[in-house]
From TrEMBL:
InterPro entries in the cross-refs: Biofilm_reg_signaling, GGDEF_dom, Nucleotide_cyclase, PAS, PAS-assoc_C, PAS-like_dom_sf, PAS_fold_3, Rev_trsase/Diguanyl_cyclase
Pfam families on file: GGDEF (PF00990), PAS_3 (PF08447)
Domain PAC residue range list: 83-131
PROSITE patterns, sorted: GGDEF, PAC
Organism: Sellimonas catena
GGDEF domain residues: 212-343
UniProt protein name: Diguanylate cyclase
Length: 344
């Protein structure tokens, strides 16, 4: 099947769809027989360029291990089910992005009708939300988040399972009305809406018996000062992408990198000498010494690095904790430097 064999109207429709639309062989490479223009925009290669460099092998763009995917494909064909996968790909610039892949099998030609969509932003938001919820649910404190009208939009595990909280109420005002000591709840909420952090106590009774006593802190959520607030989200996002490109350029074939959340990146170097890793980190720090012009604005960017080596008995969590402690020391000492974990 080739592009020229398609009706012109069909080709026009395909090329105006904001998703990659492909027709691929059912082989280990998912060799592309047809792809719309949007697919080539996603990967950054011209059609002829991709054919020459990769022989139209779609699988060559996939970063993740395709072996389990191929096994799953056979199972789906046997069961007569459509495919539905999420995995990572790379584009011509070497940037990694997530895609959602859905496909329907064509048994007559032993091929697949495929649609792919870039879901990188959605995956990043989902990961950061899950990470935040993990932290909140493992805190010993009860945490309740509400809108300005006091409508509750989130409770962590401690708050949701609190035996003396009325689980049926939908607002902070209803939850704490009649339980605040000394102060007026209306005054507390009014001052908080003006941006003032409020501290107060609540007591709960049942049948005249005290069943709960809390010391509370009501904190207005406001934007912190940072790149996105000063220069805008586009500038902040471009700095993140620029940093990712710098870090990716240092990787070996067995190394791994991921955005750990916000402006933090996590890199796992495999079988590399500590001296080489320090040199690479210094290189990144040195590139930040000269101001970068982004969107017509000159911005001075600094980096901080924390490095930890795996010791005997270290698992992923303990190694990550060591690196995090090292990064904390770097930031505490003025940033724009490197600290190597040495036991403290």
């Amino acid at each position: 099947m080739s592009k020229t064999s398609l009706d012109r109207r069909v080709v026009t429709i395909m090329n105006h769809i904001h998703a990659g639309v492909l027709y691929c062989k059912n082989d280990r490479y998912s060799t592309i027989l047809y792809a719309n223009d949007y697919f080539y925009q996603m990967i950054g290669y011209e059609k002829d360029e991709f054919a020459i460099l990769f022989s139209n092998r779609f699988a060559d763009l996939v970063v993740d291990d395709v072996a389990p995917i191929l096994i799953s494909v056979k199972e789906h064909i046997a069961l007569g089910k459509d495919l539905d996968f999420e995995y990572r790909m790379h584009n011509k610039k070497g940037e990694i992005f997530w895609i959602h892949d859905t496909a329907k099998y064509d048994p007559e030609n032993d091929s697949w009708y495929v649609t792919i969509m870039d879901i990188t932003e959605m995956k990043s938001l989902k990961y950061e939300r899950e990470r935040l919820e993990f932290y909140l649910n493992n805190m010993p404190n009860k945490i309740v988040i509400c809108n300005l009208d006091t409508t509750i939009i989130y409770k962590n595990r401690q708050a949701a399972q609190c035996s003396y909280f009325n689980s049926e109420v939908t607002s902070l005002y209803q939850l704490e009305r009649g339980h605040v000591l000394v102060k007026s709840l209306d005054e507390i909420l009014c001052r908080a809406s003006d941006g003032e952090t409020q501290e107060y106590e609540t007591r709960y009774r049942k049948n005249g018996v005290f069943i709960g006593h809390d010391k509370n802190r009501l904190i207005p959520i406001r934007n912190s000062e940072g790149i996105n607030d000063t220069y805008g989200h586009r500038t902040g996002d471009e700095i993140i992408r620029m940093t990712a490109r710098k870090l990716t350029s240092m990787l070996g074939p067995e190394d791994y990198i991921c955005r750990f959340g916000g402006d933090e990146f996590l890199i796992l170097f495999v079988d590399q000498a500590l001296e080489n890793i320090i040199k690479k980190a210094r290189y990144v720090l040195n590139t930040a010494l000269s101001p970068d012009s982004i969107g017509g604005t000159t911005i001075r960017i600094t980096y901080s690095a924390g490095i930890a080596s795996r010791g005997s008995g270290d698992d992923y969590e303990s190694l990550l904790l060591k690196a995090d402690r090292a990064l904390y020391r770097t930031k505490a000492n003025g940033k724009n430097n490197i600290h190597i974990f040495n036991g403290s």
